[in-house]
Amino acid sequence: MQTMNLQSFDVIQYLEDRGIEYRLRGKNVSRGWVEINCLWCDDPSFHLGISPQKFLNCWRCGPKGSIINLICKIDKCSKPAAKEVLKQYSHLTDETLNIILNKQPQPQTKSLFPLPGRPGLHDQYRDYLIKRKFNPDFLEVYYQLRSGPIAGRYHHRIIIPIIQNQQPVSFLARSISDSLQPKYLASPSEQSLKPIKHCLYGIDEIKDEAVVVEGVTDVWRWGPGAVAVFG
Ligand SMILES: [Zn+2]
Questions:
Q1: Which of 7, 34, 67, 151 has the fewest CB atoms below 10 angstroms from its CB?
Q2: Domains, the chain, ordered by start
Q3: Which residues surround ligand 1, an ion (CB under 5 A)?
């Protein structure tokens, strides 16, 4: 059976064939990110990360979608031509590629489950994430992180929706200040559509291969393709 993701795309070979300088992040190359100078912004130093699943994220100017967009930029070619390049470097069939490429990042969902807080990440939440070397733009788009409410139980907390089948079913609220404990508050089970312990965080970004990591922040670091259980 063919793997339904772009992990097999040999990005290093592709970059070397094009004479593009890259850097590796993480000890294990096959599991880590590849970084190059961003082609979308005025980036002097390797801010464009290519995730193991070949999603693009610039730590300065935000997510850039799939690897196809990068190939179009580098090879100055059309999308169909970029697809041929993808095929050449990943040994995937047309059919598999079509399935993979039709999977786009989910738009903001309409919710049956009311999430606390406010949509989007306001400055104090963005600053906190940036300090921890996360990209707030990426996390807003892929994981739909929200700002905490202006007062009450979840004040000064990032609201982390737990999304299953494109539907928020529960949430975690992460403190953005060391003095505010506990670090995480979970949505009360009686108010959740599904008990948090029965959820797999990040599952909506998985085709059929997943990496299981420790917690939600590890999922953010890894990007699409990683899941976390709630212990
Ligand atoms: Zn950029």
A1: 151
A2: 6-101 (3.90.580.10), 123-229 (3.90.980)
A3: 38, 40-41, 43, 58, 60-61
Distance 143 CA to ligand 1 centre (A): 20
**Structure tokens that stand for 56 in this block:** 């693009």
CA of 56 relative to ligand 1 center, distance in Å: 10
Residue 142 C-alpha to ligand 1 middle, in angstroms? 17
Report how far ligand 1's centroid is from the alpha carbon of 198 (Å). 37
CA of 45 to the centre of ligand 1 (A): 10
10-50 tens-digit pLDDT: 999 999 999 999 988 754 444 578 889 999 998 888 888 88
| Cα-to-centroid distance, 66 and ligand 1 (Å) | 14
Ligand 1: distance of its center to the CA of 187 in Å? 35
CA angle in degrees (0–180, nearest 5) for 146-48-133: 45
Cβ contact 176:156 at 8 Å: yes
C-alpha distances out from residue 76 to 89, 126, 140, 158, 159, Å: 17, 34, 29, 39, 40
The residue ranges of DSSP E strands in 62-110, in sequence order, are: 62-66
Per-residue pLDDT tens over the stretch 104-134: 554 444 457 889 999 888 999 999 999 998 9
Q: Which of 59, 73, 83 is nearest to 136 (CA)?
A: 59
pLDDT tens per residue across span 154-165: 999 999 999 988
**Phi and psi at residue 67, to the nearest 5°:** -60, -25
